[in-house]
Amino acid sequence: MAVQRDLDLIQGLEKELFKQAVRGSSDEVGKLLADNFVEFGRSGRVYHKEEVIRSLAAESAGAVQTLTASDFALKPLADGVVLLTYRSLRRGEDGRELHSLRSSIWKLIGGRWQMVFHQGTPTNPAQ
What we know:
The chain has helices spanning 3-16, 20-23, 26-32, 49-58; strands at residues 33-40, 46-48, 64-78, 81-92, 97-109, 112-123. The longest helix is centred in the N-terminal third of the chain and has 14 residues, at 3-16. The protein is an alpha+beta fold. The chain has 4 helices and 6 strands; from the N terminus they run H-H-H-E-E-H-E-E-E-E. A 6-stranded mixed β-sheet has the order 2-1-6-5-4-3.
């Protein structure tokens, strides 16, 4: 698989989780997250698949004004396993900005890419 094609594919899957229509659908989020999914949130808390699904479904549509990402990079870790890294900016309806460094591990499971791990680390815009 070509690196750019892989980056485009995995980046597209990651960005699905930015969409309110997907975030609000337990089925859609469930398809993107592996059963053994774990997240180390930017808050320092640890989350598992069912907690993330419930949390995203409970978000109000206006809870996030914008969620954007940049500086995507993809690194193969093993056959069928990749690490996606990027920067994110989440701007709430109050105008407050939350900048994070993000990393996700995606694994090809049963012919479908699913996220098995995600981490968000708070950062400043210039870092």
